[in-house]
Amino acid sequence: MKIGIVCYPTFGGSGVVATELGLELSKRGHQIHFITYNQPVRLELLSNNVHYHEVNVPEYPLFHYQPYELALSSKLVDMVKLHGIEILHVHYAIPHAYAAYMAKKMLQEEGIHVPIVTTLHGTDITLVGSHPFYKPAVTFSINKSDAVTAVSQSLKDDTLRLFDINNDIHVVPNFIDLEKYNHGFTDCQRGMMAKDDEKIITHISNLRPVKRVQDVIKVFYGIQKALPAKLMFIGEGPEKESIENQCRDLGISDKVIFFGRSNEIDKILCFSDLFLLPSLTESFGLAALEAMASGVPVISSNTGGIPEVNVEGVSGYLSEVGDVEEMSKNAIHILKDEDRLAQFKNNARQEALKFDLHEIVPQYEVIYQQTLAKALLL
Ligand code: GMT
Hints:
This protein is α/β, with parallel strands linked by helices. The protein folds into two domains: 2-175 and 357-377, Glycogen Phosphorylase B (Rossmann fold); 178-355, 3-Layer(aba) Sandwich (Rossmann fold), CATH 3.40.50. The chain has helices spanning 13-27, 68-83, 93-109, 123-127, 135-144, 153-162, 213-226, 240-250, 265-270, 286-293, 324-336, 338-352, 357-377, and strands spanning 2-6, 31-36, 50-54, 87-91, 116-120, 147-150, 170-171, 199-204, 229-234, 256-260, 274-277, 298-301, 316-319. Helix 3 (93-109) crosses helix 5. Ligand GMT is lined by residues 12-14, 17, 121-123, 126, 151, 174, 205-206, 210, 281-286.
């Protein structure tokens, strides 16, 4: 199949999932066309089957806001015509499904029929999309898609609760390339990060308020009082200054290492003992799954789709949002006993197997085939 993929090309989970999906589909023989405003961060190699088309939005001083959706829908029209793209898979209802629908309508005028598959990732539903400013456009975009998927049952339920939806929503969970995380533990260079007796705690996110990164620091503060530990913070975002100050106020700056954005998540997870994800909400929690695939147990909140990934008492523990005391207590419980830690690490890896990309990616292929077949009948 010739598949056009539209996503946010940044470090966010939706862009990562879209990119990994495209790469795996290309290995399975499909022609993949990424259509985005920057080359997606995890898209390192272009090949015969993997193409990238940049959406340019020319700056015009008259416009207070540059019309990205217009530029994207025009680019989609051009790329579908030029490359014979058969189906568009857009990640995020707004603005991608919205722009794709406009492209579809423009193409229809020329007798070209391209169905749209929309994948909902969370921010487009629970955080931004449900705002009254966007709600009608999000509802419209979901209802007008030819197929809709959500990355967890929880996100599907939220979408049906928050919007007036008359379309089916298929749950296709996020996935992981387990091979990538199947590292030998000899090349971890753990010694560069912490002393032998120190446990390594990790958090990865874009440091937005929804990630509750202040809770990460509070949980770590509790842990390091009980046992020697270091905290690795990976990511950049609006809360960074606040947590740097928090570390200074608590006198733990020397125990917290800030990495900024990194393309070496697998290497960092390789030497981690525990992952913290105390978010206010997560439709799925891809970062937790990446940790688990590396054999790192997870202490998280019990919100949104996280319980579909992190299993209580098996791959880690889940607490109410904001219950940092319980999170610290559970973290210490895992870390204090070497045998228990080894068991949780093993369990985490086992639980991650449920999300093997070889199991999940074919589900998208089936959806594409069904959607194309349905479009042919219309
Ligand atoms: O929250 C993020 O880190 C980024 C965000 C995005 O839109 O890229 O992630 C969302 O999609 C990910 C991939 O499906 C999910 O794993 C995240 O849980 C989800 N974030 C939220 O729901 C807040």
